[in-house]
Amino acid sequence: MFSQKVTLVSKPELKTTKGNNLLASANVVYFGKNKTDREGSHASFINIEAWDQNAEALAALKKGDTITIEGEIYQRRWQTKEGKNASNFYLSVSKFSKATP
Questions:
Q1: CA neighbor of 91 nearest in space, from 2, 19, 16, 11
Q2: Domain CATH for 56
Q3: How far is the first Cα of the chain from the last one, in angstroms, to the nearest whole number?
Q4: In 3-state terms, what secondary structure has residue 70?
Q5: Which string of b and e fits 16-36 if b means at least 16 CB within 10 Å?
Q6: 40 vs 74, which has greater pLDDT?
Q7: What is the tens place of the pLDDT at every residue in 27-59?
Q8: Domain count within the chain
Q9: What is the pLDDT of residue 77?
Q10: Which stretches of the chain are assigned E, i.e. beta strand?
Q11: Residue 74 belongs to what domain range?
Q12: Is-above-0.85 flag for pTM?
């Protein structure tokens, strides 16, 4: 379980899936204790997804909002058109709330 205060770096995008479920996705940044690059940044960026009621609530937020999220980190794997293996990580949000400044 991942639980962290994060800031939205993109406006959440809301769409309806083929199965008629609501899906909101966005990109967030959080600042950890460990450096993430040679310049000394502590920023980590991750894509997030929220479904159905959480999707509607997330979609109402705007870029720059700070939220506290809980969820599971998953890895997607696929093959590119060139036949190479590719993957990315995302967080499936189970619960979130707007954080106080």
A1: 2
A2: 2.40.50.140
A3: 24
A4: strand
A5: eeeeeebbbbbbbebeeeeee
A6: 74
A7: 999 887 766 666 767 788 999 999 999 999 999
A8: 1
A9: 96
A10: 2-8, 13-16, 22-31, 43-51, 66-79, 85-98
A11: 2-98
A12: no
